[in-house]
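EI: anyone free to look at a 431-residue chain?
SC: sure, send it
EI:
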Amino acid sequence: MALWRRCVRICRWGAVAVLAIWLGGCAGLGQQASTDTPNLNRPLAAFDVDATRFGKAAPKPYPFDPDNGMDGTEVAILAVLNNPQLAAERGDAKVARPQLFAAGLLPRPSLERHPRSSVAQALVARVASRMAGTAANGHKIHLTLLWDEWQVAQAARMLYARRLTDQQSLNVLKGFAALFHAQQQREQAAGSGAADTMLAARLNVERRMAALRSDGAQDRRTLNAVLGLAPDLDLPLVAGKVPSAAGNRAVASSLQRLGRRRPDLVALGIGAGSGDRLLRETVLARFPPIRVALQGAGGEAKASGPAQVDMQLPFFDDSLGRVDPKLATREYLRHQRQARIARDSDLIRTLQARYAHARRQLRARSASLSRLQESVERARAAYQAGRLPGGAFLTMEKTLLSHQLAWLQDRYAMLELHIAMQSLLFLPAGS
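SC: here you go
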């Protein structure tokens, strides 16, 4: 199960950070600031910027329909509306409307379809309740709220991709367990020695299912905590459209505007131009960077090497708010801003190359899988007609199982690369 256990370490803010959300989030967020410390309880007016800075027209409302399964956009919408820490922050700031909606970075949910299942009814009712009173209220965007909402949305997308892979892999394993069981019974009825081989294959699959359920239970609880839902609720998830690969020109254009759009960089610019020491301390406390690292063979240099994404989101870090006042100088903030732009620009280009390679690899895997499925179907007909021994057919089925699970892992690796790149570029998922 090493293939699946790698998922546990991707977000280093796992189970411990879930508790941090429920206990008040990051250090300092739940405390009243003194006159000597940066104010972390509310967005300061100095961090209010015009919505036109983000250059996005309001996207079309997005259908929120849990009965048909939730894709990554629906999960992100639910996270931003229902995360308990974000709701508390907006309440403290007396802001009803999620800032990602106001900035055009996340579509408002459309609730036109009547839910059928009890789970869908509860989710739609929750979203409708959260959307009440969220009409546009001015043209200003609170950067502190926007930065926090962005991180929660990206965490939800990453966890969605992982949980979707868990669910779909479990379904694949279930299907093969049923097939192997039916073939075992067929071989037993025929008095064939292949029955024992079929039994061993079924038991192996069932062991993998048990391990995946165990790992998936923690993924489910972590996702649900980010979404503000009961830990044991199993959300129905579906795959969305595979994002297209961003071209060099599009990425270059986004990088040119990065310092003017991404909230942490905008805030660092505000702080670097301010003579207010407490404001500069607040910038360092409230706008730490998103950190992305690529793990695996080849490091960050080779676009074709296998990679795992390790994305650390400061919203889920209990060290938020700990600032050394000696660092809160205008020169330091200016240096931090330039360093983040330089570091993330290089990383974004690496992620772009990795993602383009991952898309090509997924297309090749899809073509190979399609050919293999056709071969297995022909072999199935031969096996059922008695023209192919059970052991030979089992070998083909096990190969198909491995390829189907590998396809799901390839897609997951591709999605997490895209989410990491969009997180750093501060662009909506469909861009």
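EI: Residues 277 and 394 are 70 Å apart (CA to CA).
SC: 👍
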